[in-house]
Amino acid sequence: MSRTIEFTKNTIILHLSGLTSLAALKRQLEIPYSSIKDVTIEDFKVSLLKFRVGTSIADIREGRFMLTDKWSFISYNNHKDVVVLRLNNHEFENVVFQINNPEEVKRQIQEHIPK
Asked: What's the pLDDT at 1?
């Protein structure tokens, strides 16, 4: 898959490669664990008409999307069963991404979030 997760001491890093990184206009995104207020797995459909800096074709969403008055970073080929990070004190309000084994990734992220 063109999206991978790296867990460091203080951050989660979402790595994008290949065409995914070109479409999203980004190769990686760092998120401090302290900024994560919630992590879920859900169906996160975004309209083709939302203002964006990136790509929106068919069900593919890659890049920055203005969903509210703040930016969200979205990277998926299918809106179902994506990992959704809701953030505080970060440039993005949400980070939404598709990855293999989303339940396992969610569990790993929850283990790193400060209690």
From this structure: 64
Q: Which residues of 66-105 are buried (b: 16+ CB within 10 A; e: fewer)?
A: ebeeebbbbbbbebeebbbbbbeebebbbbbbbbeebeeb
Ordered by start, the domain boundaries in the chain are 3-112
From CA 13, how far away is CA 5, in angstroms rounded? 6
Assess contact for 83 and 41: CB atoms under 8 A. Answer: yes
**pLDDT tens readout for residues 51-90:** 898 988 888 999 999 999 999 999 999 999 999 999 999 9
Torsion of CA 60, 88, 34, 14, to 10 degrees: 10
For residue 49, the 8-state DSSP code is T
- Helices vs. strands in the chain: H and E counts, helices first: 2, 9
Q: Are 96 and 84 in contact (CB under 8 A)?
A: yes
